[in-house]
UniProtKB/TrEMBL annotation, chain A:
<dbReference type="GO" id="GO:0004834">
    <property type="term" value="F:tryptophan synthase activity"/>
</dbReference>
<keyword id="KW-0057">Aromatic amino acid biosynthesis</keyword>
<feature type="modified residue" description="N6-(pyridoxal phosphate)lysine">
    <location>
        <position position="98"/>
    </location>
</feature>
<feature type="domain" description="Tryptophan synthase beta chain-like PALP">
    <location>
        <begin position="64"/>
        <end position="392"/>
    </location>
</feature>
<keyword id="KW-0028">Amino-acid biosynthesis</keyword>
<feature type="region of interest" description="Disordered">
    <location>
        <begin position="1"/>
        <end position="21"/>
    </location>
</feature>
<protein>
    <recommendedName>
        <fullName>Tryptophan synthase beta chain</fullName>
        <ecNumber>4.2.1.20</ecNumber>
    </recommendedName>
</protein>
<dbReference type="InterPro" id="IPR036052">
    <property type="entry name" value="TrpB-like_PALP_sf"/>
</dbReference>
<dbReference type="InterPro" id="IPR006653">
    <property type="entry name" value="Trp_synth_b_CS"/>
</dbReference>
Automatic annotation (TrEMBL), chain B:
<dbReference type="Pfam" id="PF00290">
    <property type="entry name" value="Trp_syntA"/>
</dbReference>
<dbReference type="InterPro" id="IPR011060">
    <property type="entry name" value="RibuloseP-bd_barrel"/>
</dbReference>
<feature type="compositionally biased region" description="Acidic residues">
    <location>
        <begin position="277"/>
        <end position="287"/>
    </location>
</feature>
<keyword id="KW-0028">Amino-acid biosynthesis</keyword>
<keyword id="KW-0057">Aromatic amino acid biosynthesis</keyword>
<comment type="similarity">
    <text>Belongs to the TrpA family.</text>
</comment>
<feature type="region of interest" description="Disordered">
    <location>
        <begin position="267"/>
        <end position="287"/>
    </location>
</feature>
<comment type="function">
    <text>The alpha subunit is responsible for the aldol cleavage of indoleglycerol phosphate to indole and glyceraldehyde 3-phosphate.</text>
</comment>
<dbReference type="InterPro" id="IPR002028">
    <property type="entry name" value="Trp_synthase_suA"/>
</dbReference>
Amino acid sequence: MSTSDPEHNRERDSEATFGDYGGQYVPEALMPALQELEDAYERYVLENEDGFMDEFRERMRDFGGRPTPLQRADRLSERYDREIYLKREDLVHGGAHKLNNALGQVLLAKYMGKERIIAETGAGQHGTATAMAAAHLDMPCEIYMGRTDVNRQRPNVYRMRMNGAEVNPVEAGSGTLKEAINETFRDWATTVETTHYVIGSVVGPHPFPKLVRDFQAVIGREAREQIREKAGHLPDSVVACAGGGSNTMGTFHEFVSDEDVDLYAVEAGGSSLEIDAEEGLAPNSATLSTGTDGVLHGAMTKLLQSEEGQIMESHSVSAGLDYAGVGPELSYLAETGRVTPVSVDDEAALNGFHRLSRLEGIIPALESSHALGYLEESHDELGDLVVVNVSGRGDKDLETVLEETEKRDLEAAPDVEVFDG
Amino acid sequence: MTDDSNAAPESTIETAIRENDPALITYITAGDPSLEDTKRYVEALDRGGADLIELGLPFSEPVAEGATIQAAINRALDAGTTPEGFFELVDDLETEAPLLVMTYYNMILQYGSEPDVRPFVERAAEAGLSGIIVPDLPAEEADPLREACDDHGLDLVFIVAPTTEGERLETIMSQVSGFAYVQARLGTTGARADVSTATHESLERLSEYDVPKAVGFGVSEGDHAAEIIEAGADGVIVGSALIDIVADSDDPEADLEAKAEELKRGAVRGAESLTVDAEDTPEPEQP
Ligand SMILES: Cc1ncc(COP(=O)(O)O)c(C=O)c1O
């Protein structure tokens, strides 16, 4: 009864999915735009038509500050008695890896003849990166941000506005990332003919997970070359934090076929890995570690959800990891065993934050602090040579860190009570 | 061009639309503000002349919905509406109009113990539902659900958007089951003050396909219904305007029944003016 020929379907499936994960679960109105984007992805990104990738790389160098260094962390290496190298994505313009993707997609939108940019943001890092990229490339830009996040990430709201972006607070639900994504999809369903949605991580319907991964893959490509230059061989393991998973896939992608390199995706363990089914709350964002298969925001992937299929409210001290879903390719790589999902809780992440600040003179983002927290907890299994992605810098997190540190007795923290003196 | 492969037994939904042309299709969210209320509201719509009734099974992330239906879904979830409660409501309902469920794909997948569409479809068939509409399931991803629906005699209704053209339109129209849900405009659901030009353009594009077409997204008044039927639709779909009544009225049952009557009258008026036009003009300009 179906007219579709199975051969064609299989071909399409293998492109749109990673094993059973991925796909295009979106309203019909968006399907033509996704097809247009697939086409643009193939031509400009994969085939470098019109020199797109050349222009992207040049702009990431001159505007974005690439390549970023791979730095030996001397005191961490000493502390853990192994070689620890940091990939310094905190040094990308804007202070996080987010610009790699944002600039790539805004430029792609330009090549596609789109007139307007929209994006969601949680912590505000993707929003600020998109606003910067849109200003740089002279495109009008609107950012959707949950009301709670607007209130707790004021500095980022100001940065977006300084760059000329409009920031639209989203009042629905808990007012965080999930609601912001919903609202951006709604805008896109209305304006799809003229507007490109710059999704902020390796999530969403095909081709976004691949497109975002390919723009972020520069992290691992550089790191792989740099570590061979500095250490003479490939690392035993690569560690990155995972929210949606864009810095994660960006760091891992180039290493996936190096089977001797272990890949660790560090998720936010929040305050506990237990869920409160009654309240629909997960006090963590450890989707790969604890989630179950389902469909959210256009893709089949691992989710924090109730047995009935309602999406849970997630939690993490780090707003950028606070999401109930995760990229479908990471779900696939975790399912097949290529990537090892692990988690560290809020406290270990805060300790990781303080430790890097004190020992190495680098204030990391709270998101990245999860990867650093994992070093402390489990360095023995990581081997002799370890690359850790520092996905962003922590200036945006200082207030949260002071607040959260005061509440706790943290082993690595300075006495923050005297900071105001 | 048109699809002759629908030699399968005539669907309940298609029959309901063809026999009641111009048909009125109504949507409300189940559990808003409670399942008991929903039962009475559905009965009121049935009395008021609804020919097909869509019931929303609430999902926490309704990306295709505008503010009105989002709020209804939140009220239903706050009231503790579950899929099982929903099916029990449907078990209890005895309406003249066939019932459809409208929900998001994850709700269908999670109904059984493993992610799988079959348990949901089986339970839907057992409860007496005639069809399913899934706003986040484009034709490309629909094979598993369509097969399960075929096995249980349910229609899987597809949406045709203003952006649906060319090959995709052909594919979707060849798979129409029940009726083609014609999305009147880009964007989300929500009552609007006018009938969009996109509606006319879409109906024009679809005129060569011999399948029932019903138009939704933004329809709120009898006059809209008249205009849409006049433009060539076989039915109108109304949701947000009814949710407004559920949310605001002092007597939702009476007002829902009256609203259904108004909409149905409008639709009939539209159909009548078509026949009058046809009589006035001996040689109608048919494309
Ligand atoms: C510095 C930093 N790292 C990581 C993340 C998490 O995103 P992803 O998992 O997509 O890399 C964010 C998100 O805001 C971030 O700002």
